[in-house]
Amino acid sequence: MSIWRRWGCRLLIAVALALIILSFLPLWQTDRWWVRQWDYPRLQVAGLLIIVGGAITLGVITWRVRSSYFAAQGAIDAEMARIRAADEPLTTEEMYAYHRLPYGTADSTTAWLALSFRALTSGSAPARRCTDPGSAA
Predict the structure, then answer these.
(1) How far apart (Å, rounded) are the C-alpha atoms in residues 98 and 106?
(2) CA-CA-CA-CA torsion for 61, 67, 71, 72, nearest 10 degrees?
């Protein structure tokens, strides 16, 4: 946090405390002028207190969101470093390159898929029985 932001937070807290004191000061039973002068602007003081309280609340929420964002970003960076250290693919391009067959090697994927599809559609696959007693077999 920068030095200006720290001073801003301290200033907002000091103003909030002063406004809280000024809002409760007229409740004191005395006739002194420096207490009675706050009888009339009590509503204005309450309005300023709401504004300052909202600014403090917004600052706290922003601080918490930023700190959780930076914590999550650190966890993501650590996981990416672990994946890179294990020499595993991280992007889609790396995934395709990782699973690509070396040059000159025959690819039997299409033949395997064709045999599997033929076995499923011709009925030569073994019949499955339901073992769940609640469903019909």
Answers:
(1) 17
(2) 40
Kindly tell me the sign of the dihedral angle through the C-alpha atoms of 116, 121, 127, 132: positive
Question: What CA–CA distance (Å, rounded) separates 128 from 95?
Answer: 35
- Side chain identity at 133, as an amino acid letter? P
Contact 38, 22 (CB under 8 A): yes
pLDDT tens, position by position, 20-66? 888 888 778 888 887 778 777 878 888 888 898 898 889 889 888 98
Separation CA 67–CA 75 (nearest Å): 12
Question: Whole-model pTM?
Answer: 0.46
The CA distance from 61 to 30, in Å, is 40
Distance of CA 5 to the CA centre of its chain: 23
Q: Average pLDDT, stretch 99-122?
A: 81
